[in-house]
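Section: Multi-chain targets

For targets with more than one molecule, the full set of components is provided together so that the structure can be written out for the assembly as a whole rather than chain by chain. Components appear in the order listed by the source. The example entry contains two components.
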Amino acid sequence: MRIWKFGDDIDTDAIIPGRFLTEYEPEKLAVHLFEGTRDDCRTGVQPGDIIVAGKNFGCGSSREHAPLALLGAGVKIVVAESFARIFYRNAVNTGLLPLVCPDTGGLEEGHEATVDIDNGVLTSDGVAYPIEPVPPFMQAIIDAGGLVEYAKEMKEVELCTGSQR
Amino acid sequence: MGATLVEKIFSSRCDRGVRAGEVVMAPVDRAMVHDITGPLAVRVFKEMDGEQVFDPARIVMLFDHQVPADSVPAAENQQFMREFAREQEIHNYDLREGVCHQVLMEKGHAAPGEIIVGSDSHTCTYGAAGAFATGIGSTDMGFVLKFGALYFRVPESIEVTVSGTFAPRVGAKDLILSIAGDIGAGGATYQALEFCGETIETMPMTGRMTCCNMAIEMGAKAGIVPPDAVTREYVQARRPGAEIADLAPDRDAVYADRRAYDVTDLVPQVAVPHNVDHVVDVGEVAGTHIDQVFIGSCTNGRYEDFVEAAEVLGDRKFSDDIRVIVVPASKEEYLKTLRAGLIEKFVEAGALVEAPCCGPCMGGAFGLLAPGEVSLSTSNRNFRGRQGSTEAEVYLCSPATAAASAITGAITDPREL
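Its structure, encoded as tokens over all components, is:
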């Protein structure tokens, strides 16, 4: 998988501009992925490539079109130093894997990388970067195949149940 | 160990002591969907084998982003939502009332102690009514439509204490911009901002809405003001007979951080392109040429905002070199502004006044910028490409600064006019 490198505070308007939100199918959204902000990525991204970013990836609007556009382009994983709250959750819900890597500074655009989720490590240019484990309640949704599949199995919710962090 | 306001709301709605960091399946008192993120939420609801929504009376639907429909796909999405509302007997304000956050507040859909979710990031606005309100995505909303509940990680809170009296032409928007500049765009991620202090206590609901609205610009899950007499009067006028929960954080509540601000010497603030936390005193960017001014949005599209703008305008005209777009946030605010003679005043001064909607804020329906153009906007986001071309620039400011700048054609300190 090839790395597309981004900086801090990549907002959802940059990922998918507001004027394209009448679409909802991932493939149609993917046509406009990063339109105007990273057109090289929009036209060059290949299925299996990964996005690597700095802090606060996905800030801004609640639009779920952002993770869907990435999925439509074949991106399955976004690695960032931190994620904005709504995007992180939207990603998990739709099946895009958001991985937190405390320091992405050394990772380089266009270089190859491999991700070993079970052992929590991303490797590129022979260097291993630690990846934080996904929180347990998010892992349950991912294991089910996203929130839709998770919810299909539920007839009703048991209110106020939960878990510690 | 005491509890924060947010911990108290979750504890109350869950009937047990709930602490920050805990993940709970909490009941939702109100859910809001609009024309942009709603269609996806409804599709997800159906994919989840949803047949009947959890409680039509607790769901509010309206259209505000692409209003009136600006394309055939937008019209199709609204048609799809109308049919769903009819079939599920959900109240649909359609495109008649205005911007979701203003409309939910003024129609009494938000009250102290409630948990409210909306498929729009600025849902945190309802914290002004003492509710825990947060923006969610469409898949989460599909889940809420089916079950009337959602998983929440109860956030830690940052206590934001504000003291002092605003100088003339300085107000809530300048305060929240300065706080955003201080905390940063991701500085409150996964936390809640609990606003308190004498300045907040004396602030009308309009200013509280402006402050809570922009909590998300710091990554916060919610912004909230402890309910008081101002809240009570506002909510009871809109929901007669409503029982208002008595709610305040404990004195020994544990906060992730405590920040104090004094507005006494605060001057008008401007967020410069392309981040909301790139905030400077107006003097630092005064004289910057602008092509368009937008006064409106869920942040600053209320009657009081237009009064402020009109006071700055006085008997002058807006500059012929720029476009001035005025968009009231709701029908109610529009009519108040109209009846006070301000719409006429703005039109005569050279502004375009549009029907209540989000307007240029999201770069959807109209008012888009060409490459190289500069906009000054009272809305809440200045991300690259937000209002049209990715080569355009958006500055954010208060209604007073917007009006002053619209007169001169360049960014102007409203205290100098």
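Chain A touches chain B through 50 residues (CB under 8 Å).
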